[in-house]
Amino acid sequence: MKIKLYNTLSRNIEDFVPQAPGHVSLYTCGPTVYNYAHIGNLRAYIFSDILKRVLLYNGLEVNHIMNLTDIDDKTIRDSQKAGQTLKEFTEFYTKEFYTDRDALNILPATKYTKATDYIKEMVTMIETLLEKNYAYKENDGSVYFDIKKFPEYGKLSHIDMNEQKENASGRIKKDEYEKENAQDFALWKAWDENDGDVFWDPSTTLGTSTSLSKGRPGWHIECSAMSIANLGETIDIHTGGIDNMFPHHENEIAQSECATGKTFANYFMHNEHLLVDGKKMSKSAGNFYTLRDIVAKGYNPIAFRYLALQNSYRTPLNFTFDSLDGAQSALKKMYNIFLKLGAEYGNINKNYEDEFITAINSDLGVSQALGIAWKMLGDESVSKADKKATILKFDEVFGLGLLNVNKIEIPDEIIKLKEEREYARSQKNWASSDEIRIIIEEKGYKVIDSDSISTIEKI
Q1: Which helix (DSSP H) or strand (DSSP E) does residue 12 occupy?
Q2: What is d(CA 349, CA 389) in angstroms, rounded to the nearest whole number?
Q3: Can you give the pLDDT at residue 221?
Q4: CB 184 within 8 A of CB 192
Q5: Banded model confidence at residue 418, pLDDT cuts 50, 70, 90
Q6: Strands 23-28 and 61-68: what pairing?
Q7: Mean pLDDT of 18-32
Q8: Could you tell me which residues come within 8 angstroms of residue 381 by beta carbon, excluding any fewer than 6 positions away?
Q9: Could you give the CA distance from residue 23 to residue 63 in angstroms, rounded to a whole number?
Q10: How far apart are CA 4 and CA 1, in angstroms?
Q11: What's the Cα-to-Cα distance from 51 to each of 24, 56, 113, rounded to whole Å?
């Protein structure tokens, strides 16, 4: 069955056709490792994970590259504030990102690429753009891309360059800016005192003949160089959050296609914003959360993943703790049902799998696929053994970690007591909760409250 995906380039849902049959090249804009990833970032990584899982479910091989931005304005600024070297500072947050990735059951990329490992490739690409007259050097040694030289500039974000004439005649050195400020962007930033000891001298340290002076790369050139180096000049799918579309992805397209003369990516896919209580997340508004924050409040990190699965990646996700409560309750219910299915594995139910594949192949319809999974679990005509085989197959896409759920079969009586105790706890009826826990223990089981999900173990 064909996979249909929404391509931001065309603003249409298209049949996905990889360049090489059976193989997909996938590039994901990963974290800037200057702080813990917030839940908006994590929604983007869950989206790209679901995309990859759907491709794998369909029998495709996926070569997945995710970058780690360990050199940019933010990493330099905050490493200096912390009194650490850039490497020490970014390596700490890189490890924390991997911790979040694993907690959310996000499949590891084929390769994680650090920007600082690809300076030579960036320098070579910038030199190519200078030679082709798509870039120019300023008096201070900085190099800028001339967006007027690329007639298709704006084709991804759909900005009208005719309305940008005044701004487009200028330059912008900042990594991030709004569409209204579309200007020539920095490919190479000449060193200044604000950079401290963070710089490269291409003519000496890289042992290559180059016209570039001491400095550092701009943000946008980093992803182009890493993508081309690892996936080739044209990739199948490029993903990221909608906030990456402009200027980052727009600039990637311009510099890459001018350097190679080839299409940079055949499909661009973007997930929409995550809001908190209907508002943009920000520290100043007091609604800024990392995964650590919600775990500290007693939630299983997989409950956040479940919440993300309930929404289309192309619609804004409004995060509230009420919605997270609902996601966690649904997750617990699915875990409990799974535990009651027994140890026997049957056959995958063909009818339900056909429905499931139709849903996920229709622009990653995982919310519809969840509904199909619940329908199957409640279908009394499907045996427990077949339900187990089918839901585990579906979990290859969901990534809810069903195989890691406590595998002992818990009697219905104990499950019922556990649910009564959870209700008592939700009502803050601690006395009743303790009484039920004692009853459970008297029947030969113990309750373990950890990671926000109460589990039962045989004593």
Answers
A1: strand 12-15
A2: 8
A3: 97
A4: no
A5: confident
A6: parallel
A7: 97
A8: none
A9: 8
A10: 9
A11: 11, 9, 20
Q: How far is Cα 459 from Cα 371, in angstroms, rounded to an integer?
A: 35
Dist. CA 117–CA 62, nearest whole Å: 23
Q: Which two tokens stand for residue 39?
A: 């839940």
Mean pLDDT of 89-110: 97
Mean pLDDT of the chain: 92
User: In angstroms, rounded to a whole number, what is the distance separating the alpha carbons of residues 300 and 315?
Assistant: 24
Which pLDDT band, with edges at 50, 70 and 90, does 398 fall under?
very high
163 has pLDDT over 80: no
Find, among 313, 185, 289, the residue nearest to 241 by Cα: 313
d(CA 186, CA 241): 22
DSSP label of 246: I
Reported for 442-451, long-range contacts at CB under 8 A and 24+ positions apart, including other chains, are: 443/413, 443/414, 443/417, 445/410, 445/414, 447/418, 447/421, 451/295, 451/300, 451/301
What pLDDT score does 167 carry? 47
Give the count of beta carbons closer than 10 Å to the beta carbon of residue 299. Answer: 22
Candidates 330, 273, 285, 269; CA nearest to 304 is 330
The answer to whether 338 and 405 are in contact (CB under 8 A) is yes
Helices (H), 11-108: 39-57, 73-82, 86-103
pLDDT, tens only, 235-256: 999 999 999 999 999 999 999 9
Q: How far apart are CA 407 and CA 390, in angstroms?
A: 17
Query: What is residue 453's predicted lDDT score, i.e. its pLDDT?
Result: 57
Alpha carbon distance 268, 368 (integer Å): 23
CA-based nearest residue to 167, from 151, 147, 187: 147
Let me know: does 45 contact 101? Beta carbons within 8 Å: yes
Of the candidates 242, 395, 245, the one whose C-alpha atom is nearest the C-alpha of residue 312 is 242
Confidence class for position 405, pLDDT limits 50, 70, 90 = confident
- Sheet with 61-68, strands from edge to edge, namely 111-114, 61-68, 23-28, 235-241, 265-271
Q: What per-residue confidence (pLDDT) applies to 184?
A: 94
Q: Which two tokens stand for residue 168?
A: 């487009």
Please name the helix (run of DSSP H) or strand (run of DSSP E) that holds residue 213, with its range, or none: none
